[in-house]
Amino acid sequence: MKISGVFLLLSLALFCFFSGVISQGEKVDCAEFGDPKVYCTRESNPHCGSDGQTYGNKCSFCKAAAKSGGKINLKHYGTC
């Protein structure tokens, strides 16, 4: 019983680690936000950038990524 519990915890820890590693650097289609006249809404759909900043939604993430010259990538969806 103890061995199966340890195995289960180890498996869960490895799953969490690798799911975070695999999701890093995902691509987001920012084509619809390329026009500087487009304003972002206040909807809440957090995006975590590779700079460690949580952006409120896709629009604000795309604006920051464009402003950085492509240096900011999506780390994962959700808060950082």
Describe this structure in words.
Keywords: Disulfide bond, Secreted, Signal. Residues 24-80 form the Kazal-like domain. InterPro entries: Kazal-type_SerProtInhib, Kazal_dom, Kazal_dom_sf. Its main location: secreted. This protein is α+β, with helices and mostly antiparallel strands and 80 residues long. The protein is 40% helix and 11% strand. The protein has a 3-stranded antiparallel sheet. A hairpin with a 4-residue loop joins strand 1 and strand 2 (54-55). The radius of gyration is 17 Å and the shape is elongated. 15% of the residues are buried.
Sheet with the most strands?
3 strands, antiparallel
Share of helical residues:
40-55%
Main β-sheet, spatial strand arrangement: 2-1-3
Order of helices and strands: HEEHE
Low-confidence stretches: 16-23
Total of DSSP H or I helical runs spanning 4+ residues: 2
Q: Measured on Cα atoms, how large is the radius of gyration? A: 17 Å
Form type: elongated
How far apart lie the N and C ends? 36 Å
